Amino acid sequence: YYFTQPSVERALPAEEIQAIGEKIGLKGDKYPDVSHAVEAVIGQAGTNDFIFIGGSGFTVGDLFSSYSLNL
């Protein structure tokens, strides 16, 4: 897992999200923002891997902002 936080004031810090994940058996690294997390997963993904980015709408919004995605 790639634990991160969106760029809104009320977001839980990535450290807290990681700690919650670890309590339920999820293992992974934390990243300071969505952009860094996405770069890390892209760097580690294989050509046939599927990347799912979930969480809140704020997380997905940060993804769109970081990559200038226009849908």
Describe the structure.
With 71 residues, this protein is mainly α. It is 45% helix and 6% strand. The chain is built from three helices and two strands, in the order βαβαα. It has helices spanning 14-23, 34-44, 57-67; strands spanning 2-3, 29-30. A two-stranded parallel sheet has the order 1-2. Helix 1 (14-23) links the parallel strand 1 (2-3) and strand 2 (29-30). The longest helix is centred in the middle third of the chain and has 11 residues, at 34-44. It is globular. The chain starts with a strand and ends with a helix.
* Class inferred from helices and paired strands: mainly alpha
Span from first to last CA? 26 Å
Helical residue percent band? 40-55%
List the secondary-structure elements in sequence, H or E. Answer: EHEHH
Strand content: 5-15%
Q: How many H/I helices?
A: 3
Which stretches are poorly predicted, pLDDT < 50 over at least 5 residues?
none
Average pLDDT for all residues: 91
Number of strands: 2
Instruction: Give the strand order, joined by hyphens, for the main sheet.
Output: 1-2
Radius of gyration: 12 Å
C-alpha geometry: globular
Main β-sheet, in a few words? Answer: 2 strands, parallel
Q: Which properties best describe this structure?
A:
single chain; 71 residues; mainly alpha; two-stranded parallel sheet; globular
SSE layout and pairings?
Blueprint: E1 2-3, H1 14-23, E2 29-30, H2 34-44, H3 57-67
Parallel strand pairs: 1-2
Can I get a quick summary?
By secondary structure, the protein is mainly α.
